[in-house]
Amino acid sequence: MNLIENEASRFLSVFQIKNDVLTILKLVNKLKDGVSQMLVFPYLSLFCHESISYIDKYNATDNSPLSKSIHIQMNRNKLKQYNLPFLKNIKMLNSVDQVQNHFFKSFVGSEDNGMYEFYDNLGVYLNEDIRIVGNTYSCYLFTADKDLSTDISDSKHHFDSGYELGQIIGSISDGLESFLPELEIPLSSYAPTYYYKDFNTHSANFLYKRQADNGCYLTLLLLHLLSMIGFVNEVLVKIIPHENTWLLKTKYIASYYSIEVLKKAWSFFATNNVLRADQLTMYEDVINKHNHLFSQDFRTCVMHYGFTNKNKFMIVDKYLDLKKPFGGLVESCFCGQSYESYNESISNYINLQSRLLYDILRLSVDDARILH
User: Fold this and answer.
1) Is the N or C terminus of the chain more exposed, i.e. has fewer CB atoms within 10 Å?
2) Mapping DSSP to helix (H, G, I), strand (E, B) and coil, where does residue 219 land?
3) Nearest CA to 79 among 37, 125, 39, 45?
4) DSSP secondary-structure letter at 322?
């Protein structure tokens, strides 16, 4: 990079970190309930990991570099699991299911006593519109140790993980307090009301259980995707203004990992005769007709700070404008398309993904109960 590109990269990166950390601080101070805190956890871990990586590499603030946390790095890498081969994702969900079964089975007796299907081991969270926004399996997965040895009821482990995130976020915020320009981060007055519905993943009515091998784990995988994009699309979008770049980053991340899993699962659906013809057509549209939204250069800049890919500054001269969202990155990566237009395209695509997943899953949640 030349001198101008280097300075632009540093300014935009520190500005983006400040925007992200202030948005996160206002968000977690607004959403103090346990469900919201758990559902936003992966994005907090991603922020902490990537901002520390940038600060340690470029010394972007006057603070002493923060040492990387093994737990933060591990939790950030949980997002990468969606890039694993399809069968590895299924194996991982099998492991989580075993942990959940062991915990809940202990209250009712063993499966050897015929009690295997007489308890619920999965909780699904919904908003006031009865739209799925999370589930207990994914909450556990994103906070547990790498080997899934963390006890479900180990509140100290969850508290320590959250406390560590809070320390890092607070330290970064303090370090950037004097960095100009000043930022106002408005949030709406919307506050989600959560509902829940419990399921037994091994019951006969859990979709695909009787239709194919690993059926319940396939359902869980699709449920994870719907939960991930649902929290962003049904909660965060109602709170954070669309022009806030942290919101676009979370929409992009949720949408990108969702399409990656759907691509890997395509061969299963195409060969096991579990979808209707119209569902297969919609599925193909989702995975094949929107790849233009996921430029590798843009993805690298969204996932990491620096606005570079392989040490190349990704904003071209004619679009570089420090007053634009992302400084002109969107225009540079998508042939001049504006931030507003691209943001709308991602939102529309998330809605399409959501419709597909609801149509495939068809989980019965109408009798969900309010979470007090």
Assistant:
1) C
2) helix
3) 45
4) T
pTM (global) more than 0.85: yes
Q: What are phi and psi of 260, to 5 degrees?
A: -65, -45
Tell how far CA 312 is from the center of its chain.
27
Helix (H, G, I), strand (E, B) or coil at 134: strand
Digits of tens for pLDDT over the chain (372 positions)?
899 999 999 999 999 999 999 999 999 999 999 999 999 999 999 999 999 989 888 664 444 445 555 555 555 556 666 777 777 777 777 777 777 766 666 655 554 555 555 567 889 999 999 999 999 988 888 877 766 666 666 667 777 778 888 999 999 999 998 887 889 999 999 999 999 999 887 776 665 544 555 667 788 889 999 999 999 999 999 999 999 999 999 999 999 999 999 998 898 888 878 788 999 999 999 999 899 999 999 999 999 999 999 999 999 999 999 999 999 999 999 999 999 999 999 999 999 999 999 999 888 899 999 997
Asked if 196 and 126 touch (Cβ cutoff 8 Å), the reply is yes
- Structure-block tokens of residue 326: 């992302």
User: Is residue 194 within 8 Å of 365, Cβ to Cβ?
Assistant: no
In three-state secondary structure terms, 73 is: helix
Token readout for 79 is 């997002």
* Full DSSP string of 100-160: HHHHHHTTT--GGGT-TTSS--EEEEE-TT--EEEEHHHHHHHHS-TTS-S-TT-HHHHHH
The partner residues of 122 in beta bridges, in order of sequence, read 199
3-state secondary structure of 137: helix
Helix (H, G, I), strand (E, B) or coil at 256: helix
Amino acid identity of residue 62, one-letter, is D
Cis peptide upstream of residue 181 (ω within 30 degrees of 0): yes
- Contact indicator for 307, 314 with CB cutoff of 8 Å: yes
Domain layout of the chain by residue ranges: 3-370
- Beta bridge partners of residue 312, listed in sequence order: 309
